[in-house]
Amino acid sequence: MIYTLQEIAKHINAELHGDPDCEIRNVDTLENASTGEISFLSNNRYLHFLKSTKASAVILKAENLVDCPVHALVMENPYLGYANVARLLYPDTVIEPGIHVSANIHSVNIHPTVCIGPYVTVGSNTKIAANVYIGPGCIIGNDITIGEDTRLIANVVLCHGVEIGKRGILHPGVVIGADGFGIANDNGKWLKIPQIGSVKIGNDVEIGANTTVDRGALGNTIIDDGVKIDNQVQIGHNVYIGEHTAIAGCVGIAGSTKIGKRCMIGGAAGISGHIEIVDDVIIMAMTGVANSIKKPGVYASGVPAMDAKTWRKNIATYKHLYALNSRVIKLEKKSK
Amino acid sequence: MIYTLQEIAKHINAELHGDPDCEIRNVDTLENASTGEISFLSNNRYLHFLKSTKASAVILKAENLVDCPVHALVMENPYLGYANVARLLYPDTVIEPGIHVSANIHSVNIHPTVCIGPYVTVGSNTKIAANVYIGPGCIIGNDITIGEDTRLIANVVLCHGVEIGKRGILHPGVVIGADGFGIANDNGKWLKIPQIGSVKIGNDVEIGANTTVDRGALGNTIIDDGVKIDNQVQIGHNVYIGEHTAIAGCVGIAGSTKIGKRCMIGGAAGISGHIEIVDDVIIMAMTGVANSIKKPGVYASGVPAMDAKTWRKNIATYKHLYALNSRVIKLEKKSK
Amino acid sequence: MIYTLQEIAKHINAELHGDPDCEIRNVDTLENASTGEISFLSNNRYLHFLKSTKASAVILKAENLVDCPVHALVMENPYLGYANVARLLYPDTVIEPGIHVSANIHSVNIHPTVCIGPYVTVGSNTKIAANVYIGPGCIIGNDITIGEDTRLIANVVLCHGVEIGKRGILHPGVVIGADGFGIANDNGKWLKIPQIGSVKIGNDVEIGANTTVDRGALGNTIIDDGVKIDNQVQIGHNVYIGEHTAIAGCVGIAGSTKIGKRCMIGGAAGISGHIEIVDDVIIMAMTGVANSIKKPGVYASGVPAMDAKTWRKNIATYKHLYALNSRVIKLEKKSK
To answer: Which ipTM did the prediction report?
Structure first.
């Protein structure tokens, strides 16, 4: 596909500086782009690449226009502009309807526009809406609902009773609705507690490769509309995640925790069970959240890397940190 | 299924306060339960829901009886009572024997009561005992033994030589017996070391979705009876885990480490290789265990979240923590 | 297979002390080895097992020869010796060419020596070189290249366009080339950014079970020759990993980060996006790397476990660490 710069400027709502008829067929980084390609500058870390870029055009903020050697599209949020250009140039592939001959289907409630790949299992009483794509090796249990235009890429497992909304994307290896970690101690032995809830996932939810979302123990685990989850995230039973929250890779969220709307949770953060995080909270990478967070804002607890020598000395002090505090208190009393 | 309160009281060994003939058909939370349902109070965090509960009956401790507006079953451990009620009302589904026509079976040692789903591979010289369930897409290698009543839900991979005991549950995406991370450095390049051990898993072991347990380098990785493991846990080669230890999600345990009986390991904890942890150790979430633990007790090292401003200032001090200690030592000398 | 000690000494380039005709058929640990088996001592933690070993021979350093009660093979790096003995005694199994009748193949470019197992999907325009093994349940998309002698054990997913070099090993549940976590915020909602790059993996790369490597947003995610990656590692879009770097389990590496050659990254470390780590860096387990590392060396930030009482007191001080520093500054001024 080829678009003129004018068409692109209009599509992404940017101000055009340069040749409106310049033809664009691809998007690439400032460093790698060449003639016929558009790029963007949204992180000043990459500003040095702007001056020497071979792109035909660059999407950038007004403040960077002065450094741009080529055509420019100016807007407040160039990253959003890049997203919209990429979506224009690389639209979703069209689903070809049909059920692969090797698939093993036990439900009659599958829309004729649905595409089901090889070695897929679909259980009984499961409803699959229009334009759904179910890639190779997916295992869809009984009593499941999948909304329009949702795509399960490959080897996705949906356990019985799970509901997925419209326009969802579930990447390979995702497991939705496996039993939560429910065990009760009976004289030193663990007794499994049946997990009788399920999982409800809203519309426009994307879930990354090998991420797991457990079914509720009682009641459902709920992931609301517009939530975006990266790879290898673990979401425990009866967790609630509010609309448009984004969760980076390797995060773990323990059971029965409620997370608000529009939160951003950084990579490898860990969130305890049975707590509540309000709307609009940002949690930085590798942070441990042990208690409820009641005010919007940015939170962190990660400790950044040091050279190992310094680290060892600091740890030695850290092990007696409260004692250090006591010693300072003693000095303070003396010095009065 | 419907049970009277008297039947339930007897089953879970609780003291009945209220109508023995009250009929119970379901279990639910204090907040959501309605007529015909039983609930429980085991965490005082939820005490405020007790007073307004619409449940027909509640399992609770004697001390909470005064606040209970409905029939009550009193016992020391209401959570165990809940577990037993849930198990009574939601017994395991019965396995229907049979091998799906699409399965690819190379072994003759499969008990006639076994259920094998679509697209399952079973290698040669593999023994599968009575009432085992092997769900869709599971891949069972050669020379494997699976004990009675064990269930592999879906897409579980068992590599050659693995042994699984009775009544186990392996959730989707579990991989048992993949090669451990064994590499030797040969002049700057890594040489793979054949992993010639295997994995032995005892009876009554549950393993969560996408968890991995590596085969031994030499000798076996061993998971003893009654161990419960949550999702996305990584267990390295030649690890030993003692009876009735419970491991929460996202934990990593490095190679050749030995963990005792009845330990509880919190979410996202990391345990180094070649160390030993005695019986009855509790490790809190996000703790790093670098050295052997020789005494039972509770251990932790996680740093709880702070608002980012405070965090930044604390980190700035932390980077020079040993220097702070030295400065205090100097002050102490002066003040003598 | 049986080898004489002389043959083994020659093969691993060690100095023989003892009977050259002693026959060796297996390798095992010092603790478990018996007659006909060879063992090794590379970690002094296990020195106490040397004196009572029942092995027929032990590979060790010259300094430990005095404590060895049996035949010995002396060399600088006994662990490398062990690796080479294990490789001699346990060579790779030979691949039997053939495509399983249940496989679903859409490409003509598959070498006749390739082995493809049951329920495998291979997309169109995909090239699979000589002696490649593709185990049960693997899903290979369109436009993929797999080099000679590479092995995909089971349930591996390669998304469209991915390139894998020669002699690679991909363990069960690996997902290569799923979409990176690319989202742009549009007035509080997240807009998915098409991930139009791919993944290029060099020669001699091993990737552990359930590890995920995302495709590039623009340009490729690149894993260079000889890189070894353990289980459950997450590698974000456009990451570059240099030759012969080793990455232990549960590590997360965020997008666009560049890691040098011969680095060693400990378990559960987390590495931020858009940073650069030079060659020959060692990062200890559970370390958080938020900024670029410009000098080779060892880096750490993990906090080791303490008993919970001490931990609670230290955390209480830590929350006000900068204030403690200010108090010491005040004392220092006073004491001048």
So the answer is: 0.97
